[in-house]
# Entry
Amino acid sequence: MPKKAIFFILLAMALFAPARARAMDPVTMAVFAPLALKAASIATPYVMRGMQSGAVHMVKIGYDMVGIFRLPLGLGQTLLGWPFGYFKTGIQNTTLGAVAPFKLTWDIALLPVALTGVSTGGNY
# Structure
């Protein structure tokens, strides 16, 4: 075998080798448990605020997903409902439906920020 082939085989074996399992001593876990509980109690308000902000943001994302269906609804109202007085409503729904994918993309991009507890604005 050429030297390059052996080198690449050894490199692949080194890169993709399974990681070794490392166990933690039970005494060490018992020593660090009170510290972990104290850290968890300190972090709890921040985690709860992040979860609440993230949940509100997920509702915004769901609203934007439903808003995408306003585009075909508006087109139908504009094309088929204009004799019955639905032309203005159809134009409004078409416009809101055309903007909805961009709002959805923006809200999905801001989701990681919302999960940190920062308000991203835009009340619906």
Summary: Helices lie at 3-15, 26-67, 70-80, 87-114. DSSP finds four helices and no strands in the chain. The two ends are 67 Å apart (CA to CA). The CA atoms of residues 7 and 13 lie 10 Å apart.
